[in-house]
Amino acid sequence: MPQPGAPIYLDYAATTPVDPRVAEQMSRALMAHGTFGNPASRSHAYGWQAEELVENARAEVAAALHADPREIVWTSGATESDNLALKGVVEGALGSGRNHIITSAIEHKAILDTCEHLQGQGCTVTYLAPDAYGRVSPQQVAEALTPASLIVSIMHVNNELGTVNDVAAIGQVCRDAGVWFHTDAAQGFGKVPLDMSRMPIDLVSISGHKIYGPKGIGVLYVRREPAVKVAAQIHGGGHEMGMRSGTLATHQIVGFGAAAALIHELHADEQAKLSRLRSRFLAHIQQIPDAVVHTHPEHHIPGIINVGFAGVDGETLLLALDDVACSNGSACTSASVEPSFVLKAIGVPDDLAHASLRFSLGRYTTEDEVERAGVRISEVVHRLRGP
To answer: What radius of gyration do the chain's Cα atoms show?
Structure first.
């Protein structure tokens, strides 16, 4: 829980605190009196016990995705998962004559920078323009496909806007065309149900620290039927079904598994609570003249709200809100003085993009915090606009 006097934390999209129930399980996999062994050590009980914890966690994540545990590949986070998905599929298809990638202009930098890298390796990339709220339509994807298309990567939930894409429908377009479909679900996993037993999605990137698990651990879901060929990008032992070598971080994996297990228990109540808090927060925001909500009014997760405050300098606003922790974009790009590339791509003018902030609610957000934050934001915007 926040320390007394600490800013109100409304930046859950950047990272979440580790749930105490998760931390407790993690601690048991760290010390000498716990399960600290190397999961790859097959000759003694320490290794066997660690391997059992790893496989139990793999099963927990698989259950949350309605997937086969053999389809879960441990990585260091969603950024590595994104890299492995795109680079691995492209390398696995060398010589096939197919090197065309389709993505959107507002993907996470882990996708955009990887696509730029692959362009330098001879791939062609089509960047689809989203609508005014950040959605990409299945029709756009269908129209962009060519005989050379190999993989489509469209994010599940945009990390700055909170807008949700219809990844099942996009996946069906790709499946019908014989093209692989990848989605970065770092912001969607645990908030919007993903059912790999029914959805035609071939690769999914998720991250532990967005669901009240630890940082430094992620997953790439890799479908087994139809089987996706993913070439390893990290070599050295052939771990993780040959797709990702390296000694597994048992404690982080245990944490991811524990956090995933809590999704089953808490999802319905948690999303209902966040929807109520979102409504209270928006009630305050909508009282501010010329406040513009960039998040889709219907297709969104309740925890992310992106708002522009016309007539206010965004950096000044962010500094003035020193008692409300929020952001002016993705945590990966928030140090930039440029306006959000996501907002620019959906047609937001530079001055309003500069004056836009992302507020994100989470498991430990209280109604009192939302009320105090709403009042504080209104006061600061009014003061900065002047008489």
So the answer is: 21
Alpha carbons within 13 A on the beta-carbon side of 307: 26
Annotated active-site residue in 115, 123, 174, 332: 332
Structure-block tokens of residue 287: 């009282």
* Measured distance between the N- and C-terminal CA atoms of the chain, rounded to whole angstroms: 38
Q: What is the pTM of this model?
A: 0.95
Q: How many CB atoms lie within 10 A of CB 220?
A: 26
Report pLDDT digits (tens) over 112-154.
999 999 999 999 999 999 999 999 999 999 999 999 999 999 9
What ranges in the chain are assigned the alpha helix state H?
A: 20-27, 45-65, 78-92, 109-120, 138-144, 167-177, 250-285, 314-320, 341-345, 350-354, 367-385
Alpha-carbon gap, residue 243 to 351, rounded angstroms: 45
Cβ atoms of residues 78 and 87 within 8 Å: no
Instruction: Look up residue 229 and give its DSSP letter.
Output: -
Count of positions (residues) in the chain? 387
Beta strand extents in the chain (DSSP E only): 8-9, 72-75, 100-104, 124-128, 149-153, 180-184, 203-207, 218-222, 291-293, 304-309, 324-325, 356-360
207 CB neighbour count, 10 Å cutoff: 27
Instruction: Let me know the angle formed at the C-alpha of 49 by 46 and 52, rounded to the nearest 5 degrees.
Output: 150
- The pLDDT of residue 3 is 66
Residue type, 210: K
**What 8-state DSSP symbol labels residue 193?**
-
Q: Does the annotation mark 332 as catalytic?
A: yes
CA neighbor of 179 nearest in space, from 234, 134, 138: 138
What whole-number distance in Å separates Cα of residue 256 and Cα of residue 267? 16
Q: 3-state DSSP call for residue 136? A: coil
d(CA 286, CA 378): 10
Residue 15 CA from chain centroid, whole number: 10
